[in-house]
Every structure is written in C-alpha cells, then in structure tokens.
C-alpha cells in the first residue's frame, strides 16, 4: 500500500516547556525550512519566537503565513536592525518556557532533537545542554562536525577553561562557542547577549554562564544541522569586530579573576585567548595595509612581527584545501540512491545496483554505546547529499531517525509498520509503504 505522508500539526496542551528563540535578517531563502524543522519536533510543548531584525526581503510575509497555520510560532517585527545579539535578547525577554533554545534562521534540527536534549538534561541534572553540530550546505565542509575527532563514548561536561581553549579566533568551525544549547531559564536568569558584539556573542554568553557555575553538558549526537555558506556572518572578522571582542574579553577576565582567583588553568586560557585576539587584530591590520599600500610596506610589518606570516600561509593553505576538496567531491560521481536499514535487512532491500547501503540503528541514549557510530553515519549522509540530489529508501523506525540527519533529498520511500505510524513523526514529502 502506498500513500503520501501527511504533515501532522501538534498542539501543546500545557503551555510551552521550551521556548525556541530565533533571530532573522533577510533569511527568507532558508526561513521556512528552519521553522518547519522546529514546529515538526516530536516534542510539541514549545513556542518558537522569531524576531525579524528589520528585514527588507519577504521574511515577514513568510512568518505571518506560517504563524496563521500554527499558533506556537510567534513573530516579532523590529523597526530597527539590532544585530543577532540584540534580536535574540528581544526573543529571550518574550520567552515563557522553562528552557530556552537558540536556533539560527538558516539551520535545521533533527525531528527528535529537543526531546533527546530534554531527556538527557533531566537525567544528568544539566543547566545547559547542547549537541554536536553537523555542517551542510557548502560542499567543502559538508559532513564536518564541531567535535570532530573529539568524539567520546557519551556526554561530556563543558568547563569555562575548555570553552576558552577551543576559541581559536580563526575562520572555520572550531570554537565551542558555535554550540547551540538549550538552557534552563532560571539558570540563565538576567544574563543576556552583549549587543555590542556582532560576532562571538554566543561564546561570550556561554562563558559568562559557565563562570557563574552552570552545569553545561554536550552530547556527541549531531542533531543540529549547521548551514555553512559564503554569507555566514560567523566567519567574517574585521578590526571593528575584533576590538569589540577584546573589550568583551577584558570583562570576562575581570569576572574570572574575581570569581575563580585560584583557577590557574582558567586564568591561563584567558591570557592565551587575549593573545590570540590581539594577534588576529594585528593580522587584520596587516591585510588592510596590504590592500592599501602593497607588499613592500606590508613586508616591513612582517619583519617586525614574523608570526603573522604563519597566519597568511594558513589562510592560503586553507583556501587551497577547500578548493581541492570541493573539486574532488564534484568529480566523485553521482550518488543517486541511498538505502537506510537495519544491519540484518540492509542487503534485502530492493534498490538499484549502484545504491549506497548504510546500516542504521536505534537512536543513542545515555544507556547505550552508539554515539560514535551515529556520528559516523550522520557525517556520511550529509557528505553524500552534498554531491547532488539523492533518492532515499528507508526502513523502519531506525530509518525514520536516520532521515533526520539529511538536510534534503529528491525523493524518499519509507517502509514502516502500520502500528508505528501513530507514534512516529513522519517527515514531509515522504512516500509511505505500510506493512
């Protein structure tokens, strides 16, 4: 039996447990997909507060159309652009949930993300909880994760020292400040984003939260799909943004010295981060001078500060690596079909001879040990999807779960037992085969 899957609208009956805060500025190209991934969560007791930061595209029209279909979506329109930090603060002030979650307007989340984070947070007594980030969008980074080779067998605690150590202040996905946690509203208290920052505002807030003693846990499950593209503001540095970061860093250092005067590791990491910020600022001045005055004048600066030469070489090598990787993936051939099924069923699913067959299993929990395998599967799926349109053949509940790691597909056929459809959130645009 074949039937088109219908999108279900779920109503929260007890008020929002989770308030999702989203800032949007001219994000109409991705806004509907981001909102849909949130409203289609398996956990339904949520509200989504989208603050439109004085967009000039059709974002507001999209917001009002979608809000008319689901009253959990709450649009707030600003007349003046405040930047991501200021807009998120507006959303935080409007939040009613016991938990608040920040999600960007061009990203996507797995359909069970909020449910999994809530369950783990309650079991671990976390004040803030985040998952791994899975990059998609740009072919040269598709499939990369924030934790990368730092994957563990289970949850890990984030400390202020580790957060600061991770912040490399360079282009790319490295700093744990990119995490998108859910935070207990009572743990957040009066803390808000520093609205003078247009970059690094997440890192700054998380650091202040940790310096205040919050228990911050990271799960190695990459259920946050992080869109990487040329317009990503997170990857743009300037002398102005770096000067503001340095000023905010000084405030963090003063707070740490007052609250944790005997934490030598923390104070060391703060000192090293300040040195990295100052070196990044010198490098930006160097780049500006190179564009204005040419190589000869710039060479004098390199003579006085030769460490900056390493920054130039790293930048050139990174650009060359990304170009090479992108070209290699484009030449790697077309992947037309992906099969997602349990190990004992994988070879029995009817599919084209050149189909890529990927073994899937039940979602990880705190009581099982499937985190590394789940991360490997998710990275493989996104990398395959980055090569072009894909067709998916999925089986069972594990197949449904695996679909949550795919940002897009051309078509999907899902074989599932009829009794499982009543308790399982079926993604949109999926053709069902009921058994």
UniProtKB/TrEMBL annotation:
Transmembrane segments: none
Gene3D superfamilies from the UniProt entry: Spore Coat Polysaccharide Biosynthesis Protein SpsA, Chain A
InterPro entries to which the protein is assigned, alphabetical: Glyco_trans_2-like, Nucleotide-diphossugar_trans
Superkingdom assignment: Bacteria
Domain Glycosyltransferase 2-like: 19-138
Pfam families: Glycos_transf_2 (PF00535)
Entry-linked PANTHER family: GLYCOSYLTRANSFERASE, UDP-GLCNAC:BETAGAL BETA-1,3-N-ACETYLGLUCOSAMINYLTRANSFERASE-LIKE PROTEIN 1
Protein name, entry field: Glycosyltransferase family 2 protein
Organism, as annotated: Ruegeria haliotis
